[in-house]
Amino acid sequence: MDKHYLSPLFAPQSIAVFAGKPDDPQTQTPQAQALHQALKAQRFEGSLVFLDSDFAGTLADLATTQADLAVIALPKDEVLGALEIAGRIKCKAAVVISSGMDAALAGELHRVARRDGIHLLGPNCLGFQRPHLQLNASVAGPLASSGPLALVSQSGALTSSILDWAQKNGVGFSTVVSLGPNTAVDMAEVLDFLATDARTHSIVVYLEGIKNARRFMSALRAAANAKPVVVLKAGRKAEGNRAALTHSGTIVGSDDVFDAALRRAGAVRVRSFVALFSAAKSLASRYRPVGRRLAVITNGGGPGVLAADWIDEVKLHLGILSDAHAQALQPKLPPLASLVDLIDLSEEAGPEHYTAALDTVAQASEVDGVLAIYSPAHGSDGSAIATALAQANRRLGKPLLTCWMGDATVGEARRILNDAAIPSFRTPEAAVGSFSNIASFYQNQQLLQQTPPPLSDLAKPDVDGARMLVESVLAERRKVLTEMESKALLAAFHIPVTRTILARNVNEAIMIATQLGFPVALKIDSPDIAHKSDVHGVALNVLNATAVRDTYVDMVEAVAKAQPGARINGVTIQNMSSQKRGREIYIGLVTDAPFGPVIAFGAGGTMIELMNDRAMELPPLNQFLARRLIDRARVAETLGEWRGAPPVDMAALEQVLLRVSEMVCELPQLREMDINPIIVDESGAVAVDARIVVDNAPPSVRHYNHLAILPYPSQHEQEWPMRGGGEYTVRPIHPDDASMLQEFVRQLSPESRYFRFVSSIQELPPTMLSRFTLIDYDREMALVAVCRERTVGADGETVETQRVLGVSRYITNPDRATCEFSLVVADDFKGQGLGSRLMLSIMDFAREKGLTEIEGLVLANNANMLKLMKSLGFSIKTYADDPDFKLVTHLL
User: Fold this and answer.
1) Which residues pair with 887 in a beta bridge?
2) Across 577-586, average pLDDT
3) Phi/psi of residue 788, nearest 5 degrees
4) Surface-to-core class of residue 249, CB atoms within 10 Å of its CB (0-12 exposed, 13-18 middle, 19+ buried)
5) Which residues pair with 297 in a beta bridge?
6) What residues have CB less than 8 Å from 674, skipping those under 6 apart?
7) For position 1, what pLDDT does the model report?
8) Interatomic CA distance for residues 382 and 529, integer angstroms
9) Residue 389 backbone dihedrals phi, psi, to 5 degrees
10) CA torsion sign, 711 to 698 to 816 to 89?
11) What is the largest CA-CA distance in the chain?
12) Residue 571: what are its φ and ψ, rounded to 5°?
């Protein structure tokens, strides 16, 4: 069970090829001819057998033939028969290299593959390559060079182009996969395999679209947690939704949502083909987390200024040496060197000067990364400088990027830098862009680590009341809430709103305004009007009763004239905000296909579309994510001290975002929402206007299936008593448990560690520790039993710490109906019922997810575990693939 389920596809030991008669090209399609050439161009390390789909007279041969993988390149009317044969010879995977197959035939192939347990790549794809296995099961061109980079592309033409480009530029691959539009093995499954592939150090993806956002995000988050992932996506300029009922729906495009999804997944998005590989090259170096301050070391002012300009353009910061570091470095440099902003070494710079500058930057805490630029100069030796940088880089400890400008005289220097695994670029702009990708990657990794619960730690909202309100609107066959209903919904989640009362005639309007106190604002109330100000449906600063009367009459007439068919409920009256120096903010919600609900934030007011200030994040949010969302919007610059106004109450603004996140998680009926404007100042934040659009939700919403990222399942936390007193908590694991889990593994006895990991490891490697604690709760679950312990420190003070006592875990199998479990309990807590509780709890969770069976492998000499499994009703059988293990299973 340790092997990935796609190993028969991407790491087969035996292959059966269906591509016409090997010695008769007349029986081969163009793809089959190319496939035969590809397979013969190098020697595959495993066994390779060519079979004919017409097996008349060869049934005996067929009966003795077995293979892990079937490679099929036949006319489309013969493909289904070949796949049937692949099932009969027990192939676990197949790739169909073809073009032009319609969706109906593809669906039939998928059905046969599912029936026979075959993982099917294709049809309508170019196949795949695994260079280290000497396996070219593709028609994408010659076998690529072996290397640490994986390529997954949804475009066959681009796959071929990339391989051709890589051959000339010395780029090697661990895996190349071309995915067609009808493939059964999809992008998510390939990413899942690459996340665990030891030969893959970084992944580049060309993406045109996805079908299942939850599965894609789950796989992408797992992959990006293990290694750098760079994505180039086509179709960035899609038009906005013209039918949108809110500002949010108008200004938020699907490409903006995709950006937000990639950030949250911890991946990096690039905008061009060239940037795809420069980003992968830089990220493959696995630099430690860095900030955005890039120092520039140069021997020419012009290139250095170009780099500085681009640093500002891509919103990085120029790393500038402190006075102390500058004074220490100056005597080691040529007389004309300048350390004002740029580290300009002058044209006289030699290897020793670059080395001195690099050693100083290594000690400078005000610098996160270094760009070394070299321009050919009379008397200078670019190769010697490159050699010096390669040696100095070993002690740098920060990202180093280089730009050797020119061409004719710098080829050898570039080779030296490439051999030293130092990213080298031909222009300053490309180098700066690459550092921006490094900074973005590690910033996005921080977002990836966030696993918020659906409800924050704030006061509990009235979720039941909110649901009743939404259901009553839908029962009336309405989708747009009135302003009164919208504000009631916000109030149910404790979002501050202005007091608003509906007036159905002039007399009511005068009476309400007098009771509220002047000045007041009047707004038309209609479910058919999206933007009130567009139809003269808003009046502010109405100062007296006479003005209320005149404004009411004029407004109703103007709206009826501007939009004759609109239903008018009346006019809402509310106090004018007393926040004189408040800033106008908007918080919105859109529902994207396929990513679901997305929260938007930016500058508010009547010019919202014109300002086009928006930042987006996928729910759920926590305080860290809310603050980062605010920081990404341009309006963030006005929230501090601004034009004489004091800073706004950021905590209040963050709380509104957290409350909106709660609404999104708990109310899957929400489709669009505008809270605009929210007026925020030093005293707090208040929602002045709101418009909410709802629709019926699918029936399975209890498990937050409407979200692309599943929230932390805090509802599964349970308290249990310990034998002998005290209690422990069983709860889902989260990333903050990493250090506790590591200590738990260290404290296990060698025997317990071996029983759990079938290895003599003393502790978990960083990649495994990260993989065990940052999990996708949709496809796996890990429950930890945690207790609090009190110890007396050296100073006599009592210190309370938490300790992990045991862990149970399951991972969903590829069939998405069964799962595989593991269990380990601290040695000093065995025999106290903890193992039973953890197993029963993990089984409950799997049952709730709709899984039908749980299974696991237990070492045959692990008597205590086998006894526990028997007591819980598991069936215990011999494991056919390895007699050292027992297979234990239980129906859920």
Assistant:
1) 857, 877
2) 79
3) -100, 135
4) buried
5) 343, 372
6) 246, 247, 248, 586, 588, 689, 690, 691, 692
7) 46
8) 67
9) -65, -40
10) negative
11) 101
12) -130, 135
d(CA 371, CA 295): 6
Going 136 to 139 to 143 to 146, the CA torsion angle's sign is: negative
**425 class by beta-carbon count within 10 Å (0-12 exposed, 13-18 middle, 19+ buried):** buried
**Is the sign of the CA dihedral 196, 861, 773, 874 positive or negative?**
positive
Q: What is the pLDDT of residue 64?
A: 63
CATH superfamily of the 289-448 domain: Succinyl-CoA synthetase domains (3.40.50.261)
Superfamily name and number for 451-498+577-712: ATP-grasp fold, B domain (3.30.470.20)
Reduced to 3 states, what is the DSSP secondary structure of residue 174? strand
For residues 294 and 212, is the Cβ–Cβ distance under 8 A?
A: no
The Cα–Cα gap between 493 and 715 comes to 19
Provide the token pair at 475: 């029962």
CB 534 within 8 A of CB 566: no
Q: Which H or E run contains 147?
A: strand 146-153
Radius of gyration of the chain (CA): 32
Paired strand residues for 875: 889
Q: Which residues lie closer than 8 Å to 218 by C-beta, 6 or more apart?
A: 188, 776, 778, 779
Which pair of structure tokens corresponds to residue 874? 């598991």
Q: Are 662 and 455 in contact (CB under 8 A)?
A: yes
User: What is each CA distance from 789 to 128, 156, 681, 701, in whole angstroms?
Assistant: 53, 58, 44, 38
pLDDT of residue 454: 87
Domain ranges of the chain: 289-448, 451-498+577-712, 499-576, 715-891
Cα–Cα distance between 382 and 399 in angstroms, integer? 20
Distance, CA of 202 to CA of 178 (rounded, Å) = 17
Q: Is the Cβ–Cβ distance between 424 and 404 less than 8 Å?
A: yes
The Cα–Cα gap between 307 and 299 comes to: 13
pLDDT at residue number 241:
44
- Terminal CA-CA length for the chain: 20
For residue 873, the number of C-alpha atoms closer than 13 Å in the C-beta half-sphere is 8
Query: pLDDT tens-digit profile of 613-645?
Result: 789 999 999 999 999 999 999 888 888 887 778
Q: Is the dihedral of CA 599, 605, 606, 608 positive or negative?
A: negative
Give the H or E element holding residue 62: helix 59-64
Task: Determine the Cα–Cα distance for residues 85 and 62; give it in Å rounded to an integer.
Answer: 9
Separation of alpha carbons 277 and 282, rounded Å: 8
Judged against a pLDDT cut of 80, whether residue 22 lies above it is answered with: no
HSE of 223, CA atoms in CB hemisphere, 13 A: 31
Structure tokens at 69: 């993988």
| CATH numeric code, 499-576 | 3.30.1490.20
How many residues in total does the chain contain? 892
Domain 715-891 classified CATH 3.40.630.30? Answer: yes
- From the list 693, 695, 696, 617, the residue with the least C-alpha distance to 246 is 693
Phi–psi pair at 539, nearest 5 degrees:
-135, 130
DSSP state of 480: B
DSSP 8-state symbol, 642? B
Q: Which residues pair with 522 in a beta bridge?
A: 539, 573
The average pLDDT across 597-602 equals 94
Tell me the C-alpha distance between 581 and 585, whole Å: 13
Residue 47 pairs in a beta bridge with 14
As given in the structure block, the two tokens for residue 219 are 């796989």
Distances 98 to 33, 71, 88, 140 between C-alpha atoms, Å: 12, 11, 22, 12
Alpha carbons 141 and 178: distance in angstroms, whole number: 12
pTM equals: 0.84
Question: DSSP of 510-534, one letter per residue?
Answer: HHHHHHH-SSEEEEEE-TT-S-GGG
Enumerate residues 6+ apart whose C-beta is below 8 A from 555.
522, 524, 536, 537, 539, 571
Helices and strands, counts by H and E, the chain: 29, 36
461 φ/ψ angles, rounded to the nearest 5 degrees? -75, 165
